[in-house]
Design brief:
By secondary structure, the chain is mostly beta strands. The chain contains 1 helix and 11 strands, in the order E-E-E-E-E-E-H-E-E-E-E-E.
């Protein structure tokens, strides 16, 4: 699998992973696969992002992801790792049972944010706050209860 990166759910039942599809102009696909089965019942998300930009909630019931508004044609994930690509990420939630995605935060609505390239997300135990570390080492806190509805 080209560009493979993954994150195991805290309960160990599912693997969230991303792969690069070179035939689709280096598109990045995010997938969720049950671990304890050999059948090919992988859910494909509509989110085009890297597994590294996602984080599971502690109870494995939700995944939060930073999703680039656009990904230019490049050699993924290598170009992103090398810093050749800088993204402006939206924050989404993803249901690991259905792969249904919901946009939570769009930084383009905030004039302060010119660059919001998230490299790590931490989720609070109550799933009400996200802590985001950007590639330029800025730390952000998002209170999900106080975000404007999108």
């Amino acid at each position: 699998i080209l560009g493979l990166a993954g994150k195991l759910s805290p309960d160990g039942k599912r693997l969230l992973y991303s792969e690069t599809d070179r035939s689709a102009f280096n598109a990045v696909t995010l997938k969720i696969k049950p671990v304890a089965t050999t059948t090919e019942n992988t859910l494909v998300s509509s989110l085009e992002t890297f597994a590294e930009k996602c984080s599971w909630s502690a109870d494995s019931s939700i995944i939060f992801c930073a999703v680039p508004q656009q990904l230019p044609v490049a050699e993924y994930p290598d170009s992103w790792y090398r810093g050749e690509i800088v993204t402006v990420d939206q924050i989404w939630s993803l249901n690991p049972q259905t792969a249904e995605a919901t946009k939570l935060f769009d930084p383009s609505k905030n004039s302060e944010l010119k660059e919001f390239d998230t490299r790590k997300i931490l989720v609070s135990g109550d799933k009400r706050r996200l802590y985001l570390l950007t590639k330029n080492q800025a730390l952000w806190e998002l209170d999900l209860d106080s975000l404007p509805k999108i």
